[in-house]
Amino acid sequence: MKQGCLISLIAITVAATAAGQSTPPQARAKTAAAVKEVTSYTPPRTPDGQPDLQGIWDSASMTPLERPKDLGAKALYTKEEAAAYEAGRSKDQNRDRRDGGNVADVARAYNDGWFDRGAHLGRNLRTSRVIDPPDGRFPPFTPEGQKRFDEMTAYFAQHPADGPEDRPLFERCLIYSQSGPPLIPGNYNNLYQIVQTPGYVTIFSEMAHQSRTVPLDDHEKLPGNVTQWIGDSRGHWEGNTLVVETTNVRYNDRSHFGTQYDYGMTDQNLKIVERSTRAAPDLLIYQATVNDPSVYTKPWTIELPMNKTEGPIFEYACHEGNYGMAGILAGERAREKKAAEQSGGDR
Question: What angle do CA 189, 124, 213 make, to 5 degrees?
Fold first, then answer.
């Protein structure tokens, strides 16, 4: 939504001033340019009159999910700061390096050829993808949520692979950071294709080759006792912004948010509101607000600038030849057997 994007951009400047950190002139100029870009563009229309969001969009960027703590309330980089950050981050993330010894070398078993994180910060030059709370970091858990998280962490430390159900959802090819909702870019496969037909919008994710078809306007919601890993999404238009509300999200004690936020948590009260606005011919602004009041002390919002790109999107066949799960479980059984032999017991 133009208004929603405008509000979020203005809020950055307000938050920085309130925190006692004046926004540098370059950042103020960038904010003003972003506001102008979002509010002045009128997207084309589909044959049935919808704002046209169709195409293939790339969400990859160097922007971290959470803001580094040492940046405090700083929400935007200047161009000079962005260039310095990109140079340092590119060096840190280079998996073709051979420094650091054997342990570091094994940790870089997937070399840089496998990764496509993006070579630059997002076009908004934000210091984090989390834009609310204003510190750019996820809010704390509620006492109830923290208790459950601690219990869950302790359990999985003792039972990492009793069965496939104990493993993270992405290892089971069920849901990924990128496929969402919400859409959270990862280390690779960060493309999305949007297709619109009368009464529906389909969002296709490169990662895991998953698609979500969103009915618009007056479609009946699923009953509360029917849940899905991607939830039940319903959409409507607010001006030029596609607003998608998702509930009925299936959950377990593993993170719904994939590898990029594997220390997150959800329950039956999760609600996700996504807002997608075409801000320029080659720019889509995506925002998602996550509200789960029994888990988090407050809602949190991420923002992604997505760049239009060319296709095609190739298939990511997660289950095809997926010997990883069998290997994980077999390895855990072997570990248990060895531990039993060393202790003199039987398993």
Answer: 45
Q: Which stretch of 47-51, 60-64, 79-83, 108-112 has the lowest confidence by average pLDDT?
A: 108-112
d(CA 259, CA 66) in angstroms, rounded, equals: 14
Between CA 147 and CA 173 the distance in angstroms is 28
287 CB contacts (<8 Å, ≥6 apart)? 4, 5, 8, 131, 274, 275, 276, 301, 302, 303, 304
Is residue 324 in some structural domain? no
Residues 183, 192 contacting (CB under 8 angstroms): yes
Rounded to two decimals, what is the model's pTM? 0.86
Q: Do 57 and 306 touch, CB atoms closer than 8 A?
A: yes
Q: Tell the residue number behind the tokens 């496929």, with chain if given.
A: 179
Residue 147 placed within a domain: yes
Q: Kindly state whether residue 332 falls inside one of the protein's structural domains.
A: no
**Where would I find the H helices in the chain?**
2-18, 25-40, 79-93, 101-107, 143-158, 324-343
Per residue in 164-195, pLDDT tens? Answer: 999 999 999 999 999 999 999 999 999 999 99
Q: Which residues contact 298 (CB under 8 A, 6 or more apart)?
A: 133, 139
User: Residue 170 in 3-state DSSP?
Assistant: coil
Angle CA(70)–CA(74)–CA(80) in degrees, nearest 5? Answer: 95
- In this prediction, residue 111 carries a pLDDT of 83
Encoded tokens for 108: 């870089």
Q: What is the pLDDT of residue 254?
A: 94
**What does the pLDDT look like over 86-102, one tens digit per residue?**
999 998 888 888 888 88
Structurally, the chain folds into a number of domains equal to 1
Q: Note the pLDDT of residue 108.
A: 84
Question: What would the DSSP string read from start to end of 14-52?
Answer: HHHHHTT-PPPHHHHHHHHHHHHHHHH----B-TTS-B-
CA torsion angle 10 11 13 14 (round to 10): 120
Domain that holds residue 184: 2-157+175-309
In one-letter notation, the amino acid at residue 239 is G
Confidence of residue 112 (pLDDT cuts 50, 70, 90): confident
153, 184 in Cβ contact below 8 A? Answer: no
- Residue 248: half-sphere exposure toward Cβ, Cα within 13 Å: 14
Cβ–Cβ under 8 Å, residues 17 and 23: yes
> Is 24 part of any domain?
yes
